[in-house]
Amino acid sequence: MIIKNISIENFRSYYGTNSMDVGEGLTLIIGANGDGKTTLFEALEWLFDTVDSKPKVDAKYISKKKIAEMMPGDSAIVKVSMTYECERSEKIVEKSFKFTKSPDNTVSMSNYLHCIYVQNGSEKEVREGDAAKRLFDIDFSASIRKYCLFKGEQELNIFNKEEAMSYLVETFSKIRDFDPYIDFTGKAQKWAQDAHDNAIKADKKNSKDAERLRGLIKNETDFIRDKSEELKNSQREAVNFATLLDELEKNKESSELLNATNSRIENLKERIDKAYRNISENYTFRLLDEMWILMGFEPIAREYGDYVATLDKEQRRMEREFQREQGAKKLAGKMQEEINQGFVPLALNIPDENTMREMLHDEVCKVCGTPAPKGSKPYNTMKKHLEDYLASLKDTSNDEEEEETLFKREFIRELVSRYTVLHNGMNWLSRLPNIIKTEIEKNRSNHEMADGLQAKLEQEEEQKRKILAQTDGLTEEQLISAFNNISEWWKQKSSAESRSDFLKRQIDEHQRKKEEYQEEYSKISEESAAATYGRTSNAMRRIAEAFLSAKVRNKREFLSQLEDTTNKYLERLNRGDFRGQAHIVEKADESAELMLIDTDGARIYNPNTALKTTMYMSLLFAVAELTTVKHEDDYPLIFDAPTSSFTAAKESDFFGVIGEINKQTIIVTKSFLNENADGSSSIDTKRLKAIKGKKYRIEKKRPFDEKNLATIETRIEPIN
Amino acid sequence: MTQKDRMLQLVLNNEQLMKQYGYSAEQLEDLDLQEALRSDNAVIASVARIIRELDGSIDASKQKEVYKKVFTYLNNNLFL
Q: Any residues with CB less than 8 A from the CB of A383 and at least 6 apart, and which?
């Protein structure tokens, strides 16, 4: 199927009719952002029915400019059509609907039409509706259409889906052609076997042996069938675990990074929590609870202390004065008493107590030198003086207890005692400003630390988001659980593989046994009439097996050829750049997978986007080349912006190679455009000249009102 | 080489078949369907008949018809 022409009428920004002829090789459609590249692609998706959710008719398909210029009651059509050639016949596939503007300026839609015009000699036949759909499916099968439209680079990832690869291989390797023959030879084998069995049954002589061998063959057949089923399950299990491990390997780096990031995040959270716990900012409470309010009170306390000390000193002085006065008064009273008795006695403390005792002991008055023998008057006078003195000592203490005090209340003493308490805390009070400063400083520093850690935490969380964004849709839980499950999966995979090997050996062994019995069975009738049927039945069985193994070999050969051709394109698309090697792996469950490997055969996980894109494209071109060489179902490849991750040099090489490939390829791109100062863009004609193929420019017709969709009109113009 | 020729080659290029029915890979070189139909080797000719006569059909009556032809052919020509 080769596209000849594409025509778009009143489809979204494509006002009026726009048409372009498509070359058999590369057709390049260049447009800047917002110029209608994706709209063109969507028009083809609508025509090809490749997006299930696309409605048959939709008001959003209608050109706003067309609606704006219509009068109420006017009608027009939206139409996308494609002229194509298939099996030397030219056809036009077309989708359209009518729209009418109502007096209230709303638009109604009607007359949806999907049809194909077939040129039949000079006649033009029309197929409509389901007939058109069926014919288009024959010319350009719905499943192939899915593999010909690629929007952006991400959609090329369809090859990650096993069924896509299997579908392409099965479709283009033609292995399905074997299926009717395999079905037939299987039946033929059974029919020939039945004929042989019946012939042997007629041979009474060997019937017992024949029955025994048939039983043995049946047992072996049943055993092989059961074990084959078991083998399939076991292989499927091994493939599943291998896929999981593969997925894990692909994301191993991400898993490790995620684990390390999570551990750092945990650590940071703990440190942030600790920093916040260390912050104690309840300053209002601390003013009173911790007496911070007294900060700056030290000079006042000291002044207070001075006052209290002065008062205390004065009080003590006054008290001493008062006591002296009181003492003198008492002594004067006593002396007066004794004067009144006729002499002037000595003061009671003169001589002192020891002298008086000494004088009594020596029986002499050492004041006047008079002897004073014991019992004499002087002796008794000295003795009484001593007794009076001793009594006066006692009297004094009694007097003091009863003594009148100068200060009746103990206010000053209390002030002193309070000052003493205050003075004890004075040391703390003098340190209080420092204590408060240190506390505030500590809190500020903890705040800073917490803020710094918080910023780091945000960086780590951003890093985590980036890691998760690169893991093919795996959630964090899946990634971590995958990482934790690795050893279990390896064990399960190895166990499934060992089981598969064991089952294969068992099946081979029983297959050999079965063949021996079959051989014996075919010979049992060698001397009878059934011999001929035996040989035929045997041959039919061998032929059936040969058809089966031919199908498998055909697939392998195709895959090998596909891999070689893919690598040829991969080399061309990555000239002078690292590319690895494309490798198609056939899995035990009969699916196949495309991957990149290094020279030592190690898989390259997560190649860069440009390399991945070229790998998938190489496979597409390889499939296309193989089908073209075989003159089978050729089909176009249509890409929308496939090279956004390419460098300018790689892009030029890429388009150069596509231009040389004998394959109809339509690429919609914003490459080859230089931006002008006024916001418009112009074609880089020098670069474009080197590219072979048809070239078109799609562009909004200027001027337009950038706020009014009804002024937008996309034009398709050929570039000469 | 047509798809049918290719299929013929792939089927006949089978070690068991070659060993049992006495032909070699060399004999298969450039062998096409027409030549195979004329082959003296009954198995080569039978495989060619199956490919030509069945022609990719899955129709039951067609299968029976082809079976009868090939069965009769083998009965009459296979002596190994």
A: A360
Judged against a pLDDT cut of 70, whether residue A519 lies above it is answered with yes
Quick one: CA torsion of A100, A104, A106, A110, rounded to 10 degrees?
-30
Single-letter code of the amino acid located at A286: R
Contacts of A543 in chain B (CB under 8 A): 11, 17, 43, 46-47, 50
Residue A71 contacts residue A101 (beta carbons within 8 Å): yes
pLDDT digit string, tens, across residues A441-498: 999 999 999 999 999 999 998 888 888 777 666 777 777 776 677 778 888 888 998 8
Residues of B in contact with A187 (CB under 8 A): 63, 67
C-alpha B31/C-alpha B38 separation (Å) is 11
Query: What's the CA gap between A65 and A10, in Å, rounded?
Result: 9
The 3-state DSSP class for residue A482 equals: helix
Burial of A145 (0-12, 13-18, 19+ CB in 10 A): buried
pTM greater than the 0.90 cutoff: no
- Regarding an ipTM greater than 0.90, the answer is yes
Please check whether residue A195 touches B, CB under 8 A: yes
Task: Provide the residue ranges of all domains of chain A, joining segments of one domain with +.
Answer: 2-24+33-148+668-718, 298-424
Q: Which two tokens stand for residue A230?
A: 């078991």
Q: Residue A402 burial (CB < 10 Å; 0-12/13-18/19+)?
A: exposed
Interface of B with A in 38-67 (CB under 8 A): 42-43, 46-47, 50-51, 54, 56-58, 63, 66-67
Answer whether B12 touches A (CB < 8 Å): yes
Q: Per-residue pLDDT tens for A250-284?
A: 677 777 788 888 899 999 999 999 988 888 888 88
Q: From chain A, pick out residues whose CB is under 8 angstroms from the CB of B46.
A: 539, 543
Cα separation, A242 vs A496, whole angstroms: 10
Contact (CB<8Å) B47/A554? no
Strand A26-30, strand A694-700: pairing: parallel
Task: Write down the architecture of domain A2-24+33-148+668-718 according to CATH.
Answer: 3-Layer(aba) Sandwich (3.40)
Q: Identify the closest residue of chain B to A523 by CA–CA distance.
A: B80
Q: Which residues of A162-197 are buried (b: 16+ CB within 10 A; e: fewer)?
A: bebbbbbbbbbbbbeebebbeebbbbbbebbbebbb
Alpha-carbon distance B69 to nearest alpha carbon in chain A (angstroms): 11
Q: Do B42 and A539 touch (CB under 8 A)?
A: yes
Distance from CA of A590 to the nearest CA of B (A): 19
Q: Which residues contact A2 (CB under 8 A, 6 or more apart)?
A: A24, A84, A85, A86, A634, A636, A664
Please say whether the beta carbons of A692 and A17 come within 8 A: no
What is the C-alpha end-to-end distance of chain B, expressed in Å?
30
Between the alpha carbon of residue A78 and those of residues A65, A95, A113, A603, A717, the distances in Å are 12, 8, 10, 49, 20
Asked whether the beta carbons of residue A546 and residue B17 sit closer than 8 angstroms, the reply is yes
The listed range with the strongest mean pLDDT (A174-188, A198-212, A382-396) is: A174-188
Per-residue pLDDT tens digits for A566-599 = 999 898 888 777 888 999 887 766 667 788 898 8
